[in-house]
RNA sequence: GCCGCGAUGGCGGAAUUGGUAGACGCACACGACUCAAAAUCGUGCGGAGCAAUCCAUGAGAGUUCGAUUCUCUCUCGCGGCACCA
């Protein structure tokens, strides 16, 4: 047999596998499915280095093992090919990005091919393929239709070098993640995805991700950044007496939105309130000033009331110039300017507080304004110190538990001063700080007690008592004595005369005497968790609150909150605010909406069209009243006024209310006369009978409705008592009969559901006509149900003349995307036009904007002239759903085949770099949840198990990079040592998820191992005939019977049966067990180590059977597929090793009949004994005690205790 | 600053329901084979000591018969977030 020639073997088997399509996967299989996925690569021009394939090797190993274990395995590969680098490369080299990408993919594919992966290339996907991005666009359109994509003009992060807007996730330290340029804030029209609507679910469902690394989950939690707190409303008063001139806008001010914050009074007055967000509503009494962010529009609205507006403007201009980077990184000192002439009124105590503008408050978090509580917030504290603002302490440290506290005798304590330092004692036993002092004995006065204590505890003898600070009550847990205490504590200031001291003896020697500076001693005591009165003493000596206290504690100086712990105080304050209408509970997230447009060429076109004419049309609300109802009663007039102010057109037809019966046809006819046309943003509110009728109307009309709100709707669940109640208020029999009739008439709820984007149902617990049960009448609709208390039938007889809750159902008009229409789905994909000039413009316009022929189109709605959206999607779009695409591929096309998608979904194992934690992995989870919501995938989460790949560093320990000239190319490694050696080495380097430096010597070590295997085969496989051992594919290794084989080389037949043989058999079984388990756990390094142990042992023992060697090859096959396949064939097998069944270990053969038990004396290893495996505890103990060595260690003493750990050790305690 | 993770021979690393620390590989040393070298095979390989034995898993303490594994404090390194109220 020839020497191990990797080149020959590897090319031979690659061809064979390809030809026989052994990796071809299909869904028609009765085997269980297993979906292993790699994060698909971005095909860069540089090609692969050895680090890239590490993850692919791991998935390949798992895929091959799973195949052998009888799973139907999907292990695909594709290309994430849109994005800036390809475009930049193309620009530089004057080739079209499509061509450059195709070229790069070719190189990548060839490189990957060298490593012998199991990809089913028939399922290859490429995000830049129009057939692929047809579906990226389709998903975007679904998001658009559900109101989750909206047009925004807020300033966004703009990279001046990449010339495009970026999402929050695309920044690193305020710099562009791609090119490192400092990002600017630029107001820009853009498309934004409302990922924040999913924030809560993205956060909660992290719980479901049991098999994700904890670190990634933590990063996602932090990124989502949930904070619970409250919104508090502060009113603003003017302190200037000069009457303001008639209101006039200055400068280029954008019309303020109606949302939150400051509103203008109708008469053109000035703003009179603003809102802040806080997580510490319990500290409201401690607010001593307020801060608004420079971006906050209230400054403009207040400007006529601000006396120092020039100074403020200067600050705003300066703040605007600062980049995000400067605002965060160069944050050394906080700056700000007071808005003179106005004051904020603290709602809880009416105090007038100064208002500042300062850029330490962010415009895009919370409300862009804060209440500042310097005593309990580090940042506010810093700012307050700088500007000399009052600090008001309203939270005290939580001290002992009063209930179980022992009242102690009067104590004295001292702060000892020496020059500018102060003395603190550090207790080495309890690890706490305290001040010298102690109890006053019955025969002492304060001074003698103090003198005694200072002497005992510090040793100092020469000092004068300077000042008595008064008595305080200290309530605390005394660690040293382990009890709760309350003590009257009398405080003195003492000054040292000189440092002469006596030795400290006895119990008091446990103290270290520390001399601390003012700041240090405050730090030590004000932050010390245990406080025996020191906190208060320090405050009295140094003046109040020079250190701010941010922890939870007990409310003080806080009116009705006094004495409550932080948690309770928060709750009580929120309740108070809500009752008074001065604020409400609020949950805030750090997660920002996803800026989804890029002003570049190489991305998916956004499939929307804008029609100026249609944009002029207001969104419409159709209100349908109930029987005997009208549009002039109940809350309708109020509602009409409110919504008209918000920019909606509210249609409230009075429908014919015949005394005898309602004529559906007539109602429909009357509604058809209303000025509503297809394509209008239409909202429908139906009350009572009007609600059910609304469903009927939608069904017949067939137009798309943004939202249907059903208030106390009639339904088949209404019963005799509701009819009676109706009769009682004078409803005629005929009318009741018509309601009954419509209730019975079938409404196609499924169709209604398709036409309506969202449905909400309002019910009241004391509605005389509508029982809560009507919910079940509408289960066909995906609806939100809101149950109200005590609102009757939502009419004037229940006293309902306003229904404030309903206002929240309607989005701001600016988020309704007026004038925007999706292109019809049948026209997808909207292909990226082929152009000559795809350079970014840098103006904020996409290069596509310059192609008139492409831009100008017709409005899908009115048929008039319209323009296409010219921004493209970000690189992350295509990767949000690619794992589904592999299951959707049919030839060169994709098809949303739910059955096939759901066969594979979710991904069982997903392997990739940790750098995607807060981008791809959040974006993909978001899209997946959305797809679940619209019913096109069957799981809430896309990836069951996630595994991070550790980086491979260069041999010098640095990152592999052209710059350092330390890149190792896999092609070279494969050529020199073979793909099998490289695969083996990359898995052997260390723990899979850990970074590790490349070592060529290490590769050689793995190569040597494979050569050993090769040589082992020489000694095992008889040279002739070659068809010596065939293991049928369905055979299990552990049940293979000798009769199935052409020849029998089993140990029994050859007559070799000895110790060595049994030993090797046990080792093989152990190896089968360990390798199987280790692959499962992705502990490849230890699996390989076990394989090495087996080969070392087998090489030396010369009793290896063919059968055992075959099992070994099966274990090796996932790691080193080529050599394993070659030797497998040498054994005479006609079918691929990957069609064979993964070996199973024999549980009776993993343990030797005799085991070594070690004997410890007092925890130290002293001897070992060899005993039968089934020895009894008594016997093993007796034997252990009996050995010569142990007898020597016992020195005749009786053992106190003998512990036996089964099969491992005996521990003797003497 | 906050959050998370980690620290074991000359190097990569193994061992955690607490039970023989250093598996496996690399490097190194010696020996065999060879005229010689490479390759290969064999032996050794944490430190100290002739040895018995002692010391050793970042440092210090604690719990335990017994700690790399659990608890506390600290140091260093890596990753993430960073004025998010």
From TrEMBL:
Keyword terms of this UniProt record: Aminoacyl-tRNA synthetase, ATP-binding, Cytoplasm, Hydrolase, Ligase, Nucleotide-binding, Protein biosynthesis
Cellular component terms per the entry's GO annotation: cytosol
Annotated residues for binding of ATP: 962
Pfam families named among the record's database cross-references: Anticodon_1, NUDIX, Ser_hydrolase, tRNA-synt_1, tRNA-synt_1_2
EC numbers for this chain: 6.1.1.4
Compositional bias annotation for Basic and acidic residues: 1035-1049
Domain of life of the native organism: Bacteria
GO aspect biological process, one term: leucyl-tRNA aminoacylation
Protein name, as recorded: Leucine--tRNA ligase
Organism field: Candidatus Magasanikbacteria bacterium RIFOXYD2_FULL_41_14
Taxonomy of the source species: Bacteria, Candidatus Magasanikiibacteriota
